[in-house]
Write a structure and sequence with these properties.
The protein is α/β, with parallel strands linked by helices and 304 residues long. It contains eleven helices and nine strands. β1 and β2 form a beta hairpin. α1 packs across α4. InterPro entries: LysR-type_TF_proteobact-type (IPR058163), LysR_HTH_N (IPR000847), LysR_subst-bd (IPR005119), WH-like_DNA-bd_sf (IPR036388), WH_DNA-bd_sf (IPR036390).
Length: 304
């Protein structure tokens, strides 16, 4: 048994404040994260330094940096805090803000909210929609899905699949089968900066420029809905078009002729906590399910 009188133990609140200041870089940002005042954080750090008998931070005006003692102590304390946080009886529901594009939310996440609740009961989700303009004025989000990322490694993509043209049965009714890519010259092509046609044209052997007529739609869901209403041909991901494919309002064209997306859905974990990592694992699971279901819709449509 430990002889407590032989040790100088700081308070748990002081250790948490110390970890938060190191993580966020200032007393003010640490206080905001801990929902306390910056003066309370300062007092906890001062109390910690008094118990340890050394300074853990070097203060240069408004700039903070760890001292050599602070570096050593941080390396020792953080694993202990992680072990305490991992004990189930210590855990309570944690709030996690999640930002994502509208169509990704409606077609991938919202239908599977019950899965999140069951898999991560300790997490309270707050969901916000982002926009192509960046959603200025909206909360930044602990976890964010971006739909406009370039150069994302395949193992980091949330919806790893290919694009193919889709159109409504009404729009295609005047074209006898078998349908060929050349028929697109007689059809309106829906334009979106998120998924340009140029790369699919090359795959299809069409030496055509990017379409220049018709409105440009900056939301994937709007583009899919426009196509389902017979307003043109859309170049889309099967996972995001599942609803319209199942309803028969969209038909895949020229399958398996497809192209890689120019933009990728990519998960950004700004918090990097146990809760955000658990949530990210759940999100990857439902994204894999969405891709699998999208492929199933394609096979069912093309073999019927």
């Amino acid at each position: 048994m430990l002889k407590l009188n032989d040790f100088r133990f700081p308070s748990f609140e002081a250790l948490v404040a110390f970890e938060a200041v190191v993580h966020f870089g200032t007393f003010e940002r640490a206080a905001e994260a801990l929902s306390i005042t910056s003066s309370a954080v300062s007092k906890r750090i001062s109390g910690l330094e008094a118990i340890l008998g050394v300074s853990v931070f070097r203060r240069d005006g408004r700039t903070l940096s760890l001292t050599s003692h602070g570096y050593e102590y941080f390396a020792q304390v953080v694993p202990l805090l992680g072990q305490l946080a991992a004990i189930p009886l210590h855990q309570r529901q944690q709030r996690l803000t999640f930002r994502m594009p509208p169509t990704f939310a409606r077609q991938v996440v919202i239908p599977r909210l019950a899965f999140f609740a069951e898999a991560c009961p300790e997490i309270e989700l707050e969901i916000f929609l982002s926009t192509p303009s960046g959603g200025q004025g909206m909360p930044f989000g602990d976890v964010e899905v971006r739909g406009d990322s370039h150069g994302v490694a395949s193992n980091e993509q949330l919806l790893e699949e290919r694009l193919l043209p889709m159109a409504s049965p009404e729009l295609l009714s005047g074209f006898p089968q078998p349908w060929t890519p050349a028929m697109l010259a007689k059809l309106p092509l829906l334009r979106s900066p998120l998924e340009p046609w140029q790369f699919w044209f090359r795959i299809a052997g069409l030496d055509w420029p990017e379409p220049t007529s018709g409105p440009r739609l900056f939301d994937v869901g709007m583009t899919l809905e426009a196509a389902a209403n017979g307003q043109g041909v859309v170049l889309a991901r099967p996972s995001l078009a599942r609803k319209w494919l199942v309803e028969g309002r969209l038909l895949p064209l020229f399958f398996p002729l497809s192209s890689m997306p120019t933009h990728h859905y990519h998960l950004c974990d700004h918090q990097r906590t146990l809760a955000s990592q658990r949530f990210a694992d759940c999100l990857r699971t439902i994204c894999c399910e969405a891709v699998e279901q999208g492929n199933h819709c394609l096979l069912r449509q093309t073999t019927s």
